[in-house]
Amino acid sequence: MVFEKTLTDLVSGIRSHKRDTALFISQNIAEIKTELQSSDFYTKSNALQKLTFLQMMGYSMSYAAFAAVEVMSSPRFALKRVGYLAACQGLDQPDKSPVVLLTTNLLKKEMRGATVGSGDNVYHAGLAVNCLSNIATEDLGRELLPDLLNLLKHPSPYSRKKALLCLYKVFLKYPQGLRLSFDQIKLCLDDPNPSVVSCAVNVITELSDKNPKNYLPLAPSFFRLLTSSANNWMLIKVVKLLGSLIPEEPRLARKLLDPLSSIVRSTHAKSLLYEAVYALTLCLQYLQKAPANLDEVV
Q1: For 43-81, how does the pLDDT look when each residue is reduced to its tens digit (9 = 90+)?
Q2: Cβ–Cβ under 8 Å, residues 263 and 250
């Protein structure tokens, strides 16, 4: 369509039709539905951009799910990105949508493409991983878990970070996957890239909320991070996890006393200070006798 409205035109039109906004939007939605039937990827992509904006205003875009999947398969990254965004927002109930099943092979292809071809494939895989984290279902988790785990071995830190964070969302829908991938997640704590380590810490800390006892074997790795890392945001998570392990293993209390006291004395970050003080109070509850430097700790 030569005279189709762009997203900019739609936003400008909404602002200029303050009295009859609902009528203006309904007319545009009718045009969008016509554009979605086009065989041209550019036209569909433009329609999806407008529909994604309208979805944020409360209008449904569930009827555009199939068109979003079609645009996701576009070879052009700019169009592909629009399709993935529309799928993330439009498939708000993935467990009930049959369209989600159509994305399985596409997502698998994108993830596997990161290991071959040009460096741009890494960003295509990043779109797929981000989409999976938003539309994850038990079936998708089961099918795509091996591909996510392969991305944990990718030479690009960008891919490893994306895959790690996506695993958490997959485990919420497919808990059995945690047993199959726990060893590989544990290896990420020793990753040479600090941002990947930070992502691994975040995932493990969130997973440990329900049952910290399962993560006791990771205590040595987290203690090493506690004493060697200078990343305050990561240290907050590390301290939080180690504090949750103290009731499960009281012997940790004496071990953690000195590094936590050091953080309390030196940090200027209020959030980290709060977590360190809280963990210290837990430590003091499990000490059989007061430490020699109790006055300094307090």
Answers
A1: 999 999 999 999 999 999 988 999 999 999 999 999 999
A2: no
Contact 84, 123 (CB under 8 A): no
Q: Does this model's pTM top 0.90?
A: no
- Residue carrying the six token digits 């060697």: 228
Amino acid at 275: E
Residue 287, phi then psi, degrees to nearest 5:
-85, 130
Question: What local confidence, expressed as pLDDT, does residue 1 receive?
Answer: 46
- pLDDT at residue 33 greater than cutoff 70: yes
CA distance 273 to 266: 9
Rounded to an integer, what is the distance from CA 139 to the centroid of its chain?
Answer: 19
**pLDDT tens per residue, range 159-210:** 999 999 999 999 999 999 999 999 999 999 999 999 999 999 999 999 998 8
